């Protein structure tokens, strides 16, 4: 079967890998080089424990403060507010306690596939050297941080998340660089991480092409769905590329592409920042989430990466790199002696739907157009599982989980 995937980020590449392994004729098209967008600068975690949607009651109550703290862990740019009323309305609805619990269950269901799917992809593609095992830590240094973190333990247990509760002394033995005032931590033992997300993307792209897949650097401006059994097509720089199936996996740009076939998706973007420290001055052995400020330090091949802030500001506004730079001062409260020599900043666009579930499925009506986007800050985590599901959908096989919850029709229909 001839398949075109629009998008060469980690989700598109993983989907291409699984489809090519099934023997399909697969072409990936993207306006940029593989992995050079949001996939390049993520925190590197493959974490089945990340089961809680950002749409939850405590986040809703903090929305007013987001408008007045441009350097906070989560903020909204004033000028972007005019684009958010519909999105925020859905977000607030998804954050109701009952809906939060339902959303948690749906993320946990998908996350139950992620480790095995990544292991399959890494072993078959020869990417094992880019992954590390051993899990990650979520540390807390205040009574409030510890209390809030432990309030989620019953939900972790309900959804079979592997977590160990550690005291401060144990944490210090695992991570001697941490401050002496660390009260304790969670150790999420099943998680993987990559020491270089960008190299992982490049490796998958290289292996994909060596196995007969094609990657084309062009900007796709529209989709032409099938009619009367004819193949679908994409319009790229004025050229129509026929295919039996088209998969939209363009991340934050998926909304505009789907609109060309009359499909609406309430998609916005979490603008994510990172600060890369090539000479951090401290040794970190595991990825560490700092619970009170909700960002992460990940040891990578090129140094220590601080990442994880969220900013709603759309695709056009200039980056506010102060949001990245401030991460050093915040991390230094946990990691005394942390240096910032030759530090560099980055910003990328995470595609985010208001209920913080991804969009995985197909357009009804026989259009032969499929979609896989909206993974927000779980793009790397859920990429291989999404690729496996898409291969099953295309192959007309039962999917490993019921994917009804991720269908765009949950927003009241897909036709505009």
Write the layout of secondary structure elements.
Elements: E1 2-6, H1 10-21, E2 25-30, E3 45-46, H2 57-61, H3 63-66, E4 74-76, H4 85-94, H5 97-111, H6 114-125, E5 131-132, E6 136-140, H7 143-150, H8 153-158, E7 163-167, H9 168-174, E8 184-188, E9 192-194, H10 197-210, E10 214-217, E11 220-224, E12 232-236, E13 239-243, E14 245-248, H11 254-259, E15 268-277, E16 288-290, E17 295-300, E18 303-312, H12 322-332, E19 344-352, E20 359-362, E21 369-373, H13 379-394
Parallel strand pairs: 1-2, 1-14, 2-10, 4-18, 6-16, 14-21
Antiparallel strand pairs: 3-9, 5-9, 6-8, 7-8, 11-12, 12-13, 15-18, 15-19, 16-17, 17-18, 20-21
Helix pairs in contact: 1-10, 1-13, 6-13
How would you sum up this structure, described in words?
- With 416 residues, the chain is α/β, with parallel strands linked by helices.
- Helices cover 30% and strands 25% of the residues.
- The strands form four sheets. Strands 4, 6, 7, 8, 15, 16, 17, 18 and 19 form a nine-stranded mixed sheet that branches.
- Helix 6 packs across helix 13.
Helix content: 25-40%
Strand content: 25-35%
Largest sheet composition: 9 strands, mixed
**Helix-strand makeup class:** alpha/beta
CATH class: Alpha Beta
Helix tally equals 13
User: What is the name of the CATH topology?
Assistant: FAD/NAD(P)-binding domain
Q: What is the rounded distance between the termini? A: 30 Å
Give the assembly state of these chains.
Answer: single chain
The average pLDDT is 93
Which regions are unreliable across 5 or more consecutive residues at pLDDT < 50? none
CATH-derived architecture: 3-Layer(bba) Sandwich
Total number of beta strands: 21
Tertiary shape: globular
What is the total number of structural domains? Answer: 1
Radius of gyration of CA atoms, rounded to a whole number: 21 Å
Please, what is the CATH homologous superfamily? Answer: FAD/NAD(P)-binding domain
């Amino acid at each position: 079967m001839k398949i075109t995937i629009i998008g060469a980020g980690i989700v598109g590449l993983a989907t291409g890998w699984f489809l090519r392994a099934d023997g399909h004729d697969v072409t990936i098209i993207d306006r940029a080089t593989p992995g050079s967008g949001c996939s390049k600068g993520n925190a590197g975690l493959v974490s089945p424990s990340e089961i809680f949607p950002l749409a939850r009651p405590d986040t809703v109550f903090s929305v007013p403060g987001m408008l007045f703290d441009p350097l906070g862990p989560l903020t909204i740019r004033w000028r972007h507010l005019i684009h958010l009323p519909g999105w925020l309305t859905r977000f607030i609805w998804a954050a109701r306690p009952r809906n939060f619990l339902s959303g948690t269950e749906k993320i946990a269901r998908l996350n139950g596939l992620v480790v095995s799917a990544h292991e399959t992809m890494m072993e078959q593609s020869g990417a094992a050297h880019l992954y590390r095992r051993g899990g990650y830590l979520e540390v807390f240094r205040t009574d409030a941080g510890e209390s809030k973190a432990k309030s989620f333990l019953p939900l972790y247990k309900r959804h079979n998340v592997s977590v160990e509760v550690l005291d401060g002394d144990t944490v210090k033995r695992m991570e001697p660089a941490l401050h002496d005032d660390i009260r304790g931590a969670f150790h999420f033992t099943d998680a993987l991480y990559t020491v270089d997300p960008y190299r992982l993307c490049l490796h998958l792209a290289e292996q994909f092409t060596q196995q007969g897949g094609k990657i084309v650097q062009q900007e796709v401006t529209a989709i032409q769905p099938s009619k009367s059994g004819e193949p679908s097509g994409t319009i790229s720089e004025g050229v129509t590329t026929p295919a039996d199936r088209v998969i939209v996996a363009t991340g934050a740009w998926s909304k505009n592409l789907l609109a060309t076939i009359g499909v609406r998706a309430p998609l916005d973007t979490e603008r994510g920042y990172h600060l890369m420290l090539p000479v951090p001055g401290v040794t970190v052995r595991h990825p560490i989430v700092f619970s009170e400020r909700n960002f992460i330090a990940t040891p990578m091949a090129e140094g220590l990466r601080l990442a994880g802030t969220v900013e709603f500001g759309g695709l056009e506004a200039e980056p506010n790199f102060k949001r990245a730079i401030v991460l050093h001062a915040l991390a230094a409260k946990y990691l005394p002696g942390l240096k910032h020599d030759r530090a560099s900043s980055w910003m990328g666009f995470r595609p985010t739907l208001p209920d913080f579930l991804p969009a995985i499925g197909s357009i009804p009506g026989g259009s032969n157009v499929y979609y896989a986007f909206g993974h927000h800050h779980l793009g790397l985590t859920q990429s291989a599982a999404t690729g496996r599901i898409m291969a099953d959908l295309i192959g007309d096989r039962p999917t490993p989980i019921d994917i009804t919850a991720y269908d765009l029709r949950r927003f009241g229909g897909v036709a505009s």
